[in-house]
C-alpha cells in the first residue's frame, strides 16, 4: 500500500491535508481522510478503513517527511511520535513500514494525488462543500467509489497478500495513542491537562511511589 498526505486548498481558502492510500497491485484507493494537517489521526483513519474493508496489508510505503521521521522533530512529545505510534500498530497487526524520500518510488500515490487535485477540488466546489466533515463524507461515499470504478483494476483478478480483517475491538485497541507518564507525590498523573488517579476493582485508591512510570493508552474511540 502506497500512502501519503497532500496539503492543498481542497474545499476552502484554508489548506487541509488529504491522507490517501492506494493498493500497489490494483490501483484501488483503499483509504482517504481529510484533516487540518498531516496527523497521526489521519493515518489511523486511513488504516482503519483498510482494515475494515480489505484486511491487514503486508506493507506500507510512505514518505520520509518529519511526520514519519520523528527524530527530526523539535517537539519531543511521545503522543506526536507518529512513526513510533503508527509503527506500533503496524507491528501488532503484522504490517511492515518502508519510507522513502524519492517521489518516483511512490509513483502511484503521487499520480493519484495529482488526479485528486484536478478532479476532487472541482467536485467539492460543485457540491457546495466547504467544511471538513462534509468533505470526508463525500470523499468516502461518492468520490473514491467512483474513482475506483473508473480507474482501478478488478480486485478479484489478483491473489491477495492481505490477512483477514481483525475484530472491531482489536482495531479500536490497536490504533491507539500510547503515552508515558510518571506518578507525582499525590499518586496522580497528568494527561491532556487533566489529573488522573488509579483505583482497583473495589474503587479503592491505588497509591504509587513518586516518579513511578506508567503508560496511558487512549484507544481509537478516545477512551
What does this structure look like?
The mean pLDDT is about 90. The chain has helices at about 40-55, 80-95, 105-125, 130-150, 170-175, and strands spanning about 1-10, 15-20, 30-35, 60-65, 95-100, 175-180, 190, 195-200, 205, 215-220. About 35% of the residues lie in helices and about 25% in strands. By secondary structure, it is of the alpha+beta class. Strand 8 (about 195-200) and strand 9 form a beta hairpin.
Short description:
With 223 residues, the chain is of the alpha+beta class. It has helices spanning 40-53, 82-93, 107-126, 132-151, 168-174, and strands spanning 2-8, 16-22, 29-35, 59-63, 96-100, 177-182, 188-191, 194-199, 205-206, 213-218.
Could you list some keywords that capture this structure?
single chain; three-stranded antiparallel β-sheet; 33% helix; alpha+beta; 10 strands; 223 residues
**Rg computed from alpha carbons, rounded to a whole number of angstroms:** 20 Å
Gross morphology? globular
What is the typical, i.e. mean, pLDDT? 91
Total of helices: 5
**Strand element count:** 10
> Element order, helices and strands?
EEEHEHEHHHEEEEE
Low-confidence stretches: none
User: What's the end-to-end separation, in Å?
Assistant: 29 Å
The helix-and-strand class reads alpha+beta
In which order are the strands of the major sheet placed?
Answer: 1-2-3
Helix coverage percent? 25-40%
Give the DSSP E fraction (strand runs of 2 or more residues): 15-25%
Sheet with the most strands, sense and barrel status: 3 strands, antiparallel
Amino acid at each position: 500500500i502506497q500512502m501519503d498526505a497532500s496539503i492543498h486548498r481542497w474545499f476552502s481558502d484554508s489548506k487541509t491535508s488529504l491522507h490517501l492510500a492506494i493498493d500497489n497491485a490494483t490501483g484501488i484507493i483503499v483509504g482517504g481522510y481529510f484533516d487540518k494537517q498531516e496527523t497521526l489521526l489521519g493515518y489511523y483513519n486511513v488504516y482503519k478503513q483498510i482494515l475494515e474493508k480489505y484486511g491487514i496489508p503486508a506493507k506500507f510505503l510512505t514518505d520520509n517527511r518529519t511526520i514519519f521521521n520523528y527524530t527530526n522533530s523539535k517537539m519531543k512529545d511521545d503522543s506526536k511520535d507518529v512513526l513510533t505510534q503508527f509503527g506500533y500498530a503496524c507491528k501488532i497487526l503484522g504490517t511492515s513500514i518502508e519510507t522513502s524520500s524519492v517521489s518516483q518510488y511512490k509513483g502511484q500515490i503521487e499520480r493519484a494525488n495529482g488526479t485528486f487535485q484536478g478532479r476532487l477540488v472541482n467536485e467539492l466546489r460543485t457540491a457546495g462543500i466547504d467544511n471538513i466533515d462534509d468533505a470526508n463524507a463525500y470523499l468516502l461515499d461518492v468520490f473514491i467509489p467512483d474513482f475506483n470504478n473508473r480507474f482501478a483494476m478488478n480486485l478479484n483478478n489478483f491473489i491477495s497478500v492481505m490477512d483477514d480483517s481483525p475484530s472491531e475491538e482489536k482495531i479500536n485497541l490497536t490504533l491507539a495513542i500510547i503515552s508515558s507518564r510518571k506518578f507525582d507525590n499525590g499518586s496522580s498523573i497528568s494527561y491532556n491537562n487533566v489529573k488522573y488517579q488509579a483505583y482497583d476493582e473495589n474503587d479503592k485508591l491505588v497509591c504509587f511511589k513518586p516518579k513511578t512510570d506508567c503508560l496511558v493508552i487512549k484507544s481509537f474511540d478516545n477512551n
